[in-house]
Write a structure and sequence with these properties.
seven-stranded mixed β-sheet; about 475 residues; globular; alpha+beta; four-stranded antiparallel β-sheet
Length: about 475
């Protein structure tokens, strides 16, 4: 059954979303001289706590945010993928759906993330007749800010391609495909960003566990208000080896411990799997790290001797393409962060669910501890992130970097709306007013309160104006 123009307000909920959809459709018609068949919406995310633990097999606590990727799509008639972006700084791209490749070494261009999603579905479905697509993308998730703009593009692309190729829209499956296929661009992530894109629920954070992938809604204290502040230092995890270096160090630390415990160390690369094999608690795992990983850093030569393997074996099978030249590995620090951060996730949820009078203060403390660990043990912070956290601390706010790090955003926990408004005002005066790159920017886009949003959706269109069906996964 068709509905009228005001459907956008009802379905997409806010006037901003409505305006963006109208702009997206008009751009699509101007570029392709036809109307889109459907629109996909996929949110960015903020990880409240549990940073750099997902690829080690441990649970995380993210929530979807209001900023989104919107994609307008129609099948093409020429076996080509036509990719366009409303933002003119992102150049259009075109390729054959049957023959395209993704070069992880050529830089993390925006269209490569979209191609990852298409390739993921084609690898999963293996259709006899792959369909070309006409695609226009609109995004208001700040890029390289730790709010998962790149993974939102991948996840939106997977959903577009799945719908067009009649793949069942089962959210756990789509989340797994999305996590796997982002690795085509060289990022060795753990799946959190893609999981929350599909599994998010409005009003709740999600406790996301792995193997099997599942999400449990977590109700936060009613007075808790989360504020996101952009450091305006961009950090793209696919553009450097920093992120993959940490992934490699975690895997090496895990294998080091597995070998010391006389396990099949080549088969165990995640701390969660090692913990399960040993039937240890997180606290016992922490003790294991302190007892066996005794050096401040390990050289490549040290590890060749410890693992009793040849150089070529080590480089080809234990490193990634962009970490093969690494010579120094900090195993103890990375392992301690992962295990202690995982403890903090459980404590945070336990405190949050108690809804006690001191719950928010305890949650703030855990967030401060998380940032300190990311700064000193994981070494993935940045002076601008640290400055934001220090300003937050002085105001009694619990804050930490969110996302991969090396730039991007912090997430801060405030006790009530009044405290959040005062906090935002103080950051505008003490941080953004003195930051050259903030001049001329809309402050509301740089620091803002947010609440948990819903997961990815498809809006089926009919003709010029109408949404005839909304598919929520």
């Amino acid at each position: 059954m068709s509905v009228g123009d005001d459907t956008y307000v009802n379905v997409l909920e806010t006037p901003t979303d409505c305006d963006r959809v109208s702009q997206l459709k008009a751009y699509f018609v101007n570029e392709f001289n036809r109307h889109p068949q459907f629109i996909v919406r996929c949110s960015g995310r903020v990880n409240i706590i549990g940073e750099h633990v997902d690829y080690c097999g441990y649970p995380v606590l993210p929530m979807a945010v209001e900023q989104t990727i919107l994609v307008a799509v129609a099948p093409s008639e020429d076996n080509l993928i036509h990719l366009k972006n409303i933002d003119s700084k992102y150049k259009p791209f075109k390729c054959n759906v049957n023959t395209f490749t993704i070069d992880p070494c050529g830089g993390p261009e925006w269209y490569k993330y979209f191609l990852c999603g298409i390739k993921g579905i084609l690898e999963y479905k293996r259709p006899s007749n792959a369909k070309g697509m006409l695609i226009v993308l609109s995004g208001n998730i700040p890029p390289a800010s730790g709010l998962s703009s790149s993974s939102a593009i991948v996840s939106a692309s997977v959903l577009c391609s799945a719908y067009l190729h009649n793949v069942p829209l089962e959210k756990q499956t789509l989340a797994t495909i999305s996590a796997d296929c982002e690795r085509y661009i060289g990022t060795q992530g753990g799946g959190m960003d893609q999981a929350i894109a599909y599994l998010a629920r409005k009003g709740c954070a999600q406790f996301i566990e792995w193997n099997p992938l599942r999400a449990t809604s977590v109700n936060l204290p009613k007075n808790a208000v989360f504020v996101i502040a952009n450091s305006l230092t961009e950090a793209n995890k696919a553009a450097t080896s920093d992120f993959n270096q940490r992934v490699v160090e975690c895997k090496l630390a895990c294998r080091f411990l597995a070998k010391q415990m006389q396990l099949e160390w080549r088969q165990i690369s995640r701390f969660a799997d090692l913990q399960q094999a040993l039937s240890y608690s997180l606290e016992e795992m922490e003790t294991l790290v302190k007892n066996y990983l005794t050096q401040i850093a390990y050289s490549k030569a040290d590890l060749l001797e410890i693992f009793e393997i040849e150089h070529d074996d080590f480089v080809e099978n234990l490193l990634t393409a962009n970490t093969k030249t690494a010579q120094i590995f900090k195993l103890k620090q990375r392992a301690l962060h992962v295990l202690q951060e995982s403890m903090r996730v459980h404590m945070f949820i336990e405190v949050a669910q108690q809804q006690s009078e001191g719950a928010i203060q305890a949650m703030k403390r855990l967030m401060r501890e998380s940032h300190e660990s990311l700064k000193t043990l994981y070494e993935c912070s940045h002076p601008n992130l640290d400055k934001l956290v220090q300003l937050s601390d002085a105001l009694g706010i619990g804050a930490r970097l969110t996302g991969a790090g090396w730039g991007g955003c912090i997430v801060a926990l405030c006790d009530g709306t009044d405290e959040s408004l005062h906090y935002i005002k103080c950051l505008s005066q003490r941080y953004y007013a003195n930051l050259p790159q903030a001049k001329g920017r809309n402050l509301e886009e740089l620091v803002f309160a947010t609440s948990p949003q819903k997961g990815a959706e498809i809006y089926i269109l009919e003709g010029r104006n109408n949404v005839i069906e909304q598919i929520s996964l």
